[in-house]
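Consider this one:
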Amino acid sequence: MPRRVVLKLSGETLCQDNLSISSAALEKTAGQIKTALTEYPTELAIVIGAGNLWRGAKQNMDRVWSDKIGMLATLMNAMALKNALSEAGLNAKVFCAKGVSEMVELYDQFAARDFLASGGVAVLAGGTGSPYFTTDTGAVLRAAELNAAQVLKATQIDGVYTDDPKKNPQAKKFDKLTFSQALAKHLKIMDETAFALCMETNIEILVFDFYKAGNLSLALSGGQVGTLVTK
């Protein structure tokens, strides 16, 4: 039986050539996902952020209102990604935490589980459905609800380091960490709420460079890539 994982993508994954949502970036992302799933069949759910469209923390407005706009932005990204995945030949469906039933299906953990078990790729929009929570927390929450074994956190860096490797060339990479070590070393892997939920539910986190060709396949195969954070 294929294992089940949640892939957390940033909204910037869909950016290219000064376009917030680029058809070229969508095609590339969908192609990577299809290749990886063809090589290593996996029950895959995807949670996508909205940083390409909306940066709520930078807006001078009510936090709850700002977060609701962010939820809508994740839905736009999810619909665009779903279309690209479908065009790549994958059976994909968007489930949204908030009701927009005219366009996509309302998220239900049991319906999403059934869809994953049937071989579909579930694209999960709307974060947790509540303000004050990041899409990292949304990804971990969905992983717990869907009985996923691991959250794959896609980044532009090939793992977790002792310091920012872009600023400090002496920074050392970790291949593997425990939750306790990550806390003791004050490593910023996810926001605190998301990280605490991973610890509580014993869901592994794999931080890896999504942009390097072949890395997603390695991640799905359980091969050596990025940094694995476990109990």
